[in-house]
Design goal:
About 25% of the residues lie in helices and about 30% in strands. The chain is an alpha+beta fold. α4 packs antiparallel against α6 (about 495-500).
Length: about 650
Amino acid sequence: MANQGSVTRAIRSFVEHRQGNVAILGAASILPLIGMLGGAMEVSRLYLVKARLQQACDTGVLGGRRAMGGGTWTPAADQLGRQYFAVNFPEGRYGARNVGVNFRVGTDQVVHGAAQLTLPMVIMQVFGFGSKLMAAECAAKLELPNADVMFVLDTTLSMTEANDGDTLPRIQVLRNSVSSFFSTLESARGPGTRVRYGFVPYASTVNVGALLKPAWVADRWTYQSREAAGTGTTTNTDTAKYRYESGPNTTTGSLQTRKYTIPPENCTAPANIKYTSKTTTDPSPVPADGEVTYTETVTRNGTTYSASLSGSTCTVTENVYQDYAQTKTVHRLYNPNYGNTSQSTVYYWNYLARSYDLTPLKTMASESAMTLGSLPDQLIGANHAAKKIPWRGCIEERQTSAANDALKPTALSDLDVDGEPVTGDPGSQWRPALPDLIYARKWNDLNSATNGTWTVPTVSNVTNNYDSPTASAAKAALRAACPTAARKLAAISKSELDSYLASLAPAGLTYHDIGFLWGLRLLSAQGIFRNENLAPSGGKVSRHLIFMTDGKTETNVNDYDAYGLAALDRRRSTAGGLPTNGDQNALVERRLGGLCTVAKNKGITVWVIAFGTDLIPLLTNCASDGRAYQAKSASELDQAFAQIAAQISQLRLTR
């Protein structure tokens, strides 16, 4: 009972002394309060760190997916993704430890990220709470909006060459890169998204004939050609008193032969370096009359060269002679026909600007598109024979002048991008390019104009067979290159694309303006193909023109191009003398610059790739801001196309 009484007295004393009791009770209540406030602060900190970790993860996959470009997750893409992550959440921020991220890429080319860190508690560790393990997941993919992509591709002769360090010619590298670009875009295309592709290969003209309506093509046009001007006879007298028969050669000395290729744009052999001597023996002197047998020796020292162009390959043959002697026995016999005469037919020609009826090409066409075919055979072949005149689809441009400006073109002129030709107005219409009708004649003698106005003179009643250009570009001095047919904007399968790319055949020189002009015409939403280029119902479409070239402007006034035979027709030249290649190059570049501005004013994104050549100001200025690339090798071209594909697409977080 005594102990119970002591407890009772102690409790009564504690209750009665209120001042001390308040202090003790207050102290006892602080710990729960600290726990409540600290817990709230730690929870807020956890939410903040979680949000920042998620943000860093998102940034990492977005940066890595953009660097991934064409669909391959490379060490560089992985490193860039980690750098983006680290900038947004470095080690030690908010006291976090073991901060890191890992990436993986699925077959769908979606980049997945998994981030983690360890976050020590600050206040709650007093109450025995340890570190918190935190994680975040993220993913990013490319999504392609509705898009029209027009490729304007330089397919000139220089595309047969290989860049330093590459094993494949540029044309094959281009095929591979465009195919990879297509695969990247297609992998980013979502259900219901419309993506179309168009192509304009170019050289001195473009092959767009099969895309034109018959109403857009002239019924008649004037070509630099020729016509038969009658025949005559000539008497030929055999003035050779002797005929010669030779035995086999015996050789001494050395002859070394090697073959190598040079750029096909100027397939010209180096000058010969040689010395040749000729001796005859037994009898000496050779009798002035009658039959005789003697020995002839020809000795060569030095080097001779010859060049041949086959397709797009120029091969030079080099022969190096060192005391190379060829000896043969020669039998000189009396010519029984000596002094006899015979008669032969002589064929005369008039070379002139001649009008031809083109309606046979149009009668084969449907209402919506021309059909390739041939004109009736023309009597302009050798010896007045009939000559086949095929149309391969390339065109001559409509009316133009040296004063035409791409920003302020004459209505329905060549630089009027959107104007539709008027039926019956040949100046506003396009014309088939028909190199088999063309004959060059002697333009180097025709450098002056009459009264300040250039008129194309006629060369009459001559037996000369002046040059005619060939579609195969067999002569470097007179080319008539016709590139692969252009394609309008349309969906295309991978197999169709690869088949088309395989058909690209390098030929001719580099006329940038005609390629860009027709790429723009096929892409424009306001032009002659506007009904086909409308945006999908209820949607929008982004328009892109990818202009790739492997060289500077290179024209030749002797070539048959989109403006006829420049040396004679002079449609883009001022009145006066023969236009120079330099003048024509400057005109092409001035027009290209203006057309690039037209494209950008239409809201078209212009991408430019200088492949194996310098990214000169002309090309940089042509491109939309930040859209010009230089590619010196196959890998750099792949990278350029991959970056373009990534930018055409839109990066999107998927989780």
